[in-house]
Amino acid sequence: MITIKPEEITALSKYIYELSNISLNTKKKYIFEIRLSPLVKELGFSDYKSLIDRAKKDRAMEQKILNAITNNETYFFRDSSTFELLKYTILPELVKKKLK
Asked: How far from 46 is each of 5, 14, 17, 40, CA to CA, in Å?
């Protein structure tokens, strides 16, 4: 695995936030390495800075980074209780407040 430098973590975190509003904890170095090192290796880069540089020129690369960094968890959308809470509690309360 290619080791990520602190300045690369900061740059990646900022870049990902600018792309997606996803705020990543820069203290969790392993998340960046585990999720992005396969992409760095696949592209033949020796560091993560090269990945950022390439992504700034290539929109498809931006999407690859976002796909790698996000966990693509769909549990939220499969849990009906979340939507029931929204439908029967939260939205009615918001409508009530708006009508006052």
From this structure: 12, 21, 23, 7
Strand, coil or helix: 67: helix
Taking the C-alpha atoms of residue 86 and residue 76, their distance in angstroms, rounded to an integer, is 12
Over the stretch 81-99, which tens digit does the pLDDT of each residue have?
Answer: 888 898 899 999 999 988 8
Residue 3 tokens read as 């080791």
The total domain count for the chain is 1
In-domain check, residue 82: no
Q: Which are the contacts of 50, defined by CB distance < 8 A and separation ≥ 6?
A: 40, 43
Report residue 29 as tokens: 């170095």
* C-alpha separations of 39 from 24, 26, 80, 81 in Å: 18, 19, 35, 36
Nearest alpha carbon to residue 64 among 31, 39, 43 = 39
